[in-house]
Each structure stands twice: as C-alpha cells, then as structure tokens.
## 1
Amino acid sequence: MDTLPLYIGGRFVPGTDVSQPVVNPASGAVLAMATRATREETRAAVDAARDAFDSGVWSGATAMKRGQVLLEIARRLRAAAPELARLETENMGKPIIESEFDVADAATCFEYYGGLATKITGDVNPVPDDALSLTLKEPVGVCAQIIPWNYPLLMAAWKIAPALCAGCTVVLKPAEATPLTALALARILGDFADLPPGVVNVVTGDGPVVGAELTASPRVDKVAFTGSTATGRSILRAAADSNLKRVTLELGGKSPNIFFADADWDAAVEGAVFGVFVNQGEVCSAGSRILVEKSIHAKFLEAIVEKAKRIRLGDPLVRETRMGPLVTAAHRARVLSYVEQGRHEGARLVLGGQVPEGMPRESAYLEPTIFDAVHPGMTIAQEEIFGPVVAVIPFTGEPEAIELANATPYGLAGAVWTRDIFRALRVVRKLRAGIVWVNHMQPTYVEAPWGGMKMSGAGRELGRNGIDNYLEQKQVHINLNENPIGWY
Ligand code: NAI
Ligand code: MG
C-alpha cells in the first residue's frame, strides 16, 4: 500500500501519522494511506514557506522569470494530463471526461497567471504637493490555501497560480478525502529546479488540526479558502484572533436556475439538468433550485425528469459515464439525510433519492434526485446539499422569480433562461449573486472573476483582479522640495 508523504521545503518527508485512508468511491478500494500532519509538521511547512518568502528568492525573482516558471508548470501539467485525470477520477469519483477538462483548466490557470506576472504594475498618484507619489505592489507574503474535495487539482491551481504570480509563497492543504492530485502536483513542482524549495508546500491532514494551525499561525499572512460556510466562519474568527491575516473565502451556495416560458426549450431542459447534476452536484455554484414559470411547470418538470433518468451513471473511468459516485459514503449519508428531510417536510420526490442497484457494495453512488412542490421555506430549498438533489419551485411573473431567487442567505451564482433580452438584463441586475449566466449555467473562466455575495464568501478570485488578493499596496511619497517643512 502506498503511503503518502508531506511536501515541505522542497522535499517529500514521511509523516508521523499515516492513517488517512484514501478511498476510491466507485469501489470502496483503499488506494493509499495519506499523512495526517500534526501541528508540528504543519508549523514546519509554514516555517519553510516563511523562510522562502523572507529570503526573497521568489519575490525577488524577475516578473519574467516567475511568469516563465508558471508557464512551465502548465506545460508539465498538460504533459501529465492522462495520468492526472485518471488519479482525480479514482480518488474523487467524477467522470473521466470531467477530470480531463479540469486538468486542462488547471493548466490554463497557470498559463493565465504566467502571462499576468509581467503585467503587475503600480501607480503614479496625482498628489497636489511638490512630490512624486507612487503605489508599489508587493506580494502579501506566506499564503495558507485550504481547498475542498470537489475539484481537487483545479482548486489547487486556482490558489497556487495567482499566489506564485504575485511572488508569494504557499502552504496548500488539500481536503482529507482527496490528496492525490495535489501531491502529484507537488511532485511536478519538486522535479523542477526553477521553483526554489519552500515556495510551495503541501500538507495533508485534518481540517481542525492542519487547517486550524494554518489559520491561527502568526507566521501566515493570508488565507485563501474554498469550502463550507461554517468552516469559512471559523477561519475568519481564527484570523481575527491571531494576526488579522488577510482572508478570502469562496463558500457555499443555493443557486437559482430560473426558467421563463419563452426560453429555448431544448437548451433550457438540458441547462436545468446540467446545471445541477454535473460533477454529481458537488459544485459550489450548482443550480440546486430550479425556478420555473408556472405556465410551463408541469411540462418542464416532466422533461427534466426524462432527461435526468437518462444520465449515464456508473464507473467514472468509462468515457460514456456522465455521473459517478459521490466523494465518500459519509458524504452520501449526509446528502441522503437531506432527501429524507425533504420528504419529511412534504416535498414531492419525483425522481431518485435512492442508492442505485448493482453498484459495488462499498461505493458511494446516489441517483439523480428531483423534488417538486418545494416550498421556498423548506430545508431543501434553503441549505446547501452539495449532491445530485434539486428543488423545483414554480413562480408567477418576473418579480416573484426575483424574490424567490434572492430568498436564501447565499449569493454565489444564478442563471436566467429567456429569449427576451430586456427581461434577462432586468433579472441580471436584480440578482444578488457574484456570477450570473444568461441562457447557460456553469461555464467558468480563469479570465473572469469568481466569488460570492452575502454568505457565499468574501472577495473574488481569478481574472485580472484575482491577483490583488495576493498583493499589498505600498504608498511611497518622494519629496521633491528640498526646503524644510517650515511648520515650526
Ligand atoms: P469543509 O469546508 O469543512 O472543508 C473544506 C476544507 O476546509 C478541507 O480542506 C477541510 O479539511 C478544511 N477545514 C475543515 N475544518 C477546518 C478548520 N476548522 N479550519 C481550517 N480548515 C478546515 O467542508 P466539508 O466538511 O468537506 O463538507 C461539508 C459541506 O460543506 C458539504 O456538504 C458542502 O455543503 C460544503 N462544501 C462546499 C464547498 C464549496 O466549494 N462551496 C466545497 C466543499 C464542501
Ligand atoms: Mg467540514
């Protein structure tokens, strides 16, 4: 059995507690044993990142050099794509074609920030005195980056690429269940002499130990987190109680996917199904509430049920598969408890809600699940389920659609389907969400900002401004007047 080390200071070091089974959720097979890093081991990683940052070995490299290193990482990711995609699918359960897409996306992220490295510039400020006022951009320092299990490699790329672009150093903590591709990425980085030791460190282990140590550390300057709103809160608290480190949070959602009667029918039906069932519904921006105009409600429900029934569920390594298992059996149990809650609160289960038959006994599959007659106040209409479960809620007219869409504590994403451009734009303006799609749902680009309003997060990642999360601004005032101040 493979035992997985930590990656600290440019070396793979065996952990003291190698007791985290890494499981293939399609079979229940244990793939490897990962390290549960201790607080001490976590501190060693922070020290390595701190030393690397303070030495200036990375922040002092030319912008051109940093950009070239990022482009080389992208090239190596693409070269290793088949192996990385397979690893991702084996560990996480997503269909292989989605993993292939994710690996390509991760490489694109390194390419984008590779190009951006040489475009980080400061400002000259038009101050009234006889002075030259400058704004310099400097790397924020040591960044703890804590990521979830739904897009393990892609989330690592979203975090590491902009940090390295800015000249920061990193301690990355993958999710407990999904360390394989992050460690594979560490191996790619470790083979690469141009990335100095300690610039990127990867520490696997438990959130309440490794994550808590990172977020409380006075030697960490910034935390970037993607995951649950509950954990996001505790991270803000840890930052407040330690050194007021900078925090960006990309949290959960309960995103509305809104369908008006005039929408293109086939595109809308597919968009409703894809919007919530892609990646088994384990997507922060999942369109987990389908809001549909009352006049088409019955027919639309029937059409999405028919389409969802035909989703090919099975072995995620098979190319035709479009839905794999959930990430772990424990997570499936959590999702199933929401299904039970939905039934209990009186929603009508019209599809799924069951463990499919004929799957390996230890696997974590769940059927695509559709609830109709969902009241907006029900638990399944308010809380993030993070699985293949959708709540269908009918509405009458645009104002009600908007009111329902905004009626959760979340504000990550939303989509509106209509052929009326004026209506589309009115709805776009009224949605309290960080990302809004018109006649589509889910495409995400490294070139465009990503993040949520309300309780879906703080700050925006990606895009040109995503780099600002990793930069401090330094105002520099250069007096051009040689005379004394003349005040006294
Ligand atoms: P989580 O938010 O607890 O875990 C995400 C990451 O945070 C993991 O690396 C975990 O080890 C780490 N973590 C956990 N506790 C921590 C702490 N006290 N300090 C620092 N880091 C900590 O999410 P979890 O438990 O995996 O899933 C629970 C629910 O969260 C899911 O059912 C889903 O609703 C939501 N979730 C949302 C995600 C999103 O992308 N919006 C991603 C993952 C989960
Ligand atoms: Mg948790």
Note: Residues 146-150, 173, 175-176, 207-208, 211-212, 215, 226-228, 231, 234-235, 251-252, 284, 334, 384, 386 surround NAI (ligand 1) (CB under 6 Å).
## 2
Amino acid sequence: MMVLVTGGAGFLGSHLCDRLIEQGDDVLCVDNFYTGSRPNILHLLSHPRFEMLRHDVTFPLYVEVQQIYNLACPASPIHYQRDPVQTTKTSVHGAINMLGLAKRTKARILQASTSEVYGDPRVHPQPETYWGNVNPLGPRSCYDEGKRCAETLFFDYYRQHRLEIKVARIFNTYGPRMQPNDGRVVSNFIVQALRGQDITIYGDGSQTRSFCYVDDLIGALIGLMQTAPEITGPINLGNPGEFSMLELAELVLKLTGSKSKLVFHPLPADDPVQRCPDITLAREVLGWAPKVELADGLRETIAYFEKQHG
Ligand code: NAD
Ligand code: UDP
Ligand code: UDP
C-alpha cells in the first residue's frame, strides 16, 4: 500500500508516518516544512519504504498513491495566525488538490479536521451533529473557516465524484515532538515548568480543554482509514476527560516538581470557553476509546522535553 501523508514532518504527521511504516506500508511524506521539521522524520529518512518530498499542497501534486492522509496545515494559533491567508489557502487549495489527486488515483482520503469547526461551542460536550458557533471574521477564522470549507469540499467530492472520504474532527492532542515554542498550552506549561519560568495562564484559567495523547489519536486515525466505504464521518476523535487550564497547570507543576508561579495574562480573542468531545460515534464505529490518562501522557511528554530541550 502506497500511503501519502501530507504534513508528515509535523507533530501528528511524523507519528503517523512511524505507525504506517511499522505496519508495513510504503509512505510518501509531503511537507513544506512551514511548521514541521526534519528532526521529526530524521530516523525514517534511510528507511527503504519511506520517501520525503518537499512540496506545498496549495500547488498540484501528481503522484500514484492508494491512500491519502491530509494533515498539512499549521495547527497552533501563533503559527496559523502568522500568515492567515496562507493558512486558508493550505486548507482550501490543499484540500482541492488532494481531492483531485484522490479522484484521479481512486485513493481513499482522510481529512484532519478539527474541534475548532465547533468554534466557541454552545452545546457541551460537542456531538458531530452540532453545527458550531464560529466567528467568520476573527483572528482564528482563517483556521476554523478554512477547515470548515475543507470539510465542505470533502463532502461535495463524495457526493459529486463518489470519493471514499473519511473526515476526522481531532480535539487537542499532545505528546512528544510538539514544538517547545509553538504556543500550545501543554508545551508552554511543560517548558515553563522545566525552566522555572512563570506559568502563563490566559484569562482566569477556568476555560476547559480535553487532551488526547498522540498514540491514542494515531490509532484512531488509522482505524478510521480502515472502515467500510460508507463510513465517511465526520467523527470526533479525542479524549473526553475535561480539564481547566488551572487544573492542567497544577498537574504539570506536580509532575515536574517545579516551583514555577502561575501568572495571569489576557485571554486571546475568540478563545473557546469549553471544549469536550462526545465520542459515542467513535466508540460505536471504530470500537475505539483513548487509553492514556492525562498524567501518564504528560509524564511521557515531560520526559521528551527534558531530553530534547532540557
Ligand atoms: P503541525 O504544525 O506540527 O503539523 C502540520 C504540518 O503541515 C507541518 O509539518 C507543516 O510544515 C505542514 N504544512 C503546513 N502547511 C503546508 C503546506 N501548504 N504544504 C505542505 N505542508 C504544509 O501540526 P499538528 O499538530 O501535527 O497538526 C496536524 C494536522 O492535524 C493539522 O491539519 C491540524 O489542523 C490537525 N489537528 C491537530 C490538532 C492537535 O491538537 N495537534 C487538533 C486538531 C486538528
Ligand atoms: N490535482 C492534483 N493531482 C492530481 C489530480 C488533480 O494536484 O493527480 C489537482 C489539480 O490541480 C486540480 C485539483 O486537483 O486543480 C482538482 O482536481 P479535479 O480533477 O477535481 O478538478 P479539475 O482538474 O477538473 O479542475
Ligand atoms: N493557554 C494558556 N496559556 C498558554 C497557552 C494557552 O492558558 O501559555 C490557553 C489558551 O488560551 C486556551 C487553552 O490554553 O484557552 C488551549 O490553548 P491551545 O493554544 O493549546 O489550543 P486551542 O486554543 O487551539 O484549543
């Protein structure tokens, strides 16, 4: 099986490449290194079934593949807001090109969508049937609306061209290979705790998120790709354990033994108040549920940051 992973040099993409190589697939990793990095895939470069292509998915790509995982897109707010027009182009033009490629090669195609399609949700926890509460004009819109449009394209290609699509709505995921400076909360808190710097809580820290460990998430993506053709999603993938940012900070302090102090910064615009996946569908369709507890996943992630960046 020749499998294309776009965004394969990123955090989730590189773990996915690892798992696909392990299970015996040939992997073509496509990435423009916008937020991804060579060290994430360095260990794979000499593998006979792994190939790396530097390419921007907003441009057409002609290769022969049987499956496509479309993960290319910066995922952390500071990265996707640095060049918002490029973010929308990556989601929308990237989806069109990868769907065109899937149409020509008759490849099955999976889209890495996001819980951000629910915006600042008014329904809690969020089931897939919820249409969301998204600001179309704010600083997060390039990401949220780009991903929503990509979902629209996936379903139009499905209806119009009968493509085999799989749409995964991924909730906050963490683990080794997150970048220390990408601004996401788990990496920020761990790096700050390890360096003895203040822990930056945005707002009063009462906002919630649900954190899924990367190994659990990758298992779900591969499981979804293998489902019967009539399973299209969208399907929520995440860990329903819900924590406030204050609880997360306390847990990181406890696990690192750090004496860092909590400091409070203004809440960024349109920051969702709460987020928690309803994973009933994933349980039914994939027989999947996350296994790794937050404290255990954080221990692994802390160990990674200590080794890499300590
Ligand atoms: P990441 O930033 O580490 O990885 C994204 C990868 O895409 C990077 O390697 C980057 O260089 C590449 N990329 C960006 N624009 C590109 C382009 N135009 N052409 C080719 N490559 C491009 O982020 P991640 O956390 O690994 O996220 C991967 C995917 O999963 C993204 O689509 C993201 O939206 C989605 N997702 C992630 C999370 C999460 O919590 N990590 C949650 C929801 C959705
Ligand atoms: N495309 C691609 N690789 C392919 C086939 C298509 O990158 O192997 C791109 C191509 O640039 C096109 C887009 O995917 O613009 C959509 O393809 P589709 O066949 O749906 O549309 P059309 O070519 O008819 O505009
Ligand atoms: N956050 C925080 N301190 C930080 C970084 C983030 O309190 O140093 C908060 C942020 O405001 C948000 C939550 O943590 O409420 C999750 O942020 P992240 O950027 O990781 O993910 P997203 O907002 O995209 O879910």
Note: The mean pLDDT is 97.
